[in-house]
Each structure stands twice: as structure tokens, then as C-alpha cells.
């Protein structure tokens, strides 16, 4: 539940899509396809620019294959020129599709003991409201 809430939250931050669109965009492939179409890039051109076979790319957009490795995800982000909010959403969907942490986070989590500790405490004690307050507090910090 919290992942779905945060997925929509990151989309709203970018103010790129409506709440209704957020509810319909439930998969990595659907999000990727919507971003590609918004930029009027063909499937064939997208596959070429990312460096993978057209069939493989189609399978990713159709959710027949898992999202690709992080290196390919980064190429897709570059080609689509995703905003920070869309980049976060993109990674969130990729992680959700693989039943794993979003691919932009494991390195950060693994390198920071305090983050691992905080996540373990939060796993047992934090509510959605606690997380929203925490996020708001961090966003005010600059």
C-alpha cells in the first residue's frame, strides 16, 4: 500500500499526470509506453537508441519480460529525458515489477548503516502518516 501511495506521490510531484491516470498506470510497461508515446518515439527507434532488440523492448513494454538491468534503465531515462519525479516513478515501477527495491536505491541502502537501521525500525513502527511527515520535513531542508 505504501509503495502505491509513494508511486502516485512522485508522479504528482512532477505534475505530469492526473490521479486517474496514476490509477490506470499500474505496471512498469504501461508507464514506459506512456512516456515513450508522449515523446512521439517509435518502438523501433526506442529499441535502437537504448541498444536492445525490438522484440525485447516490446516484451518489456507489454510486461512479458521484467524491466531490464540498471544500465539499460539509465539509457531509457536518458533517451526519454525523464524529470526527477518521473525518474523516481520509473525506478519504483521497475522495482515493483521485480518484487525488489527500486534499482536506484540498493547501493545507497547498502552503503549506509543508519539507513538500514532506520528502515528496519520503520518497518515495525512507522505508519504512512509518519513517512509523509518525514518526507515533508526532508523536503523543507535545503
* CATH homologous superfamily designation of the largest domain: lambda repressor-like DNA-binding domains
Number of strand elements: 0
What string, H for helix and E for strand, traces the elements in order? HHHHHHHHHH
Number of domains: 2
Distance between the termini: 29 Å
Number of helices: 10
Mean pLDDT, nearest integer? 86
Q: Any low-confidence stretches, pLDDT <50, length ≥5?
A: 1-20
Helix content: over 70%
Based on CA inertia axes, which overall geometry fits? elongated
Radius of gyration: 16 Å
The fraction of residues assigned to DSSP E strands is under 5%
In CATH terms, what is the fold-level topology of the largest domain?
434 Repressor (Amino-terminal Domain)
Major sheet description:
none
Assign the CATH class of the largest domain.
Answer: Mainly Alpha
| CATH architectural group of the largest domain | Orthogonal Bundle
Structural class, by secondary structure, is mainly alpha
Indicate the topology.
Layout: H1 2-13, H2 19-24, H3 28-38, H4 43-50, H5 54-61, H6 70-80, H7 84-97, H8 106-111, H9 113-125, H10 128-140
Helix pairs in contact: 1-7, 4-5
Structure, described:
The protein contains ten helices and no strands. It is mainly alpha-helical and 142 residues long. 72% of the residues lie in helices and 0% in strands. Residues 1-20 have low confidence and may be disordered. It has helices at 2-13, 19-24, 28-38, 43-50, 54-61, 70-80, 84-97, 106-111, 113-125, 128-140. The longest helix has 14 residues, at 84-97.
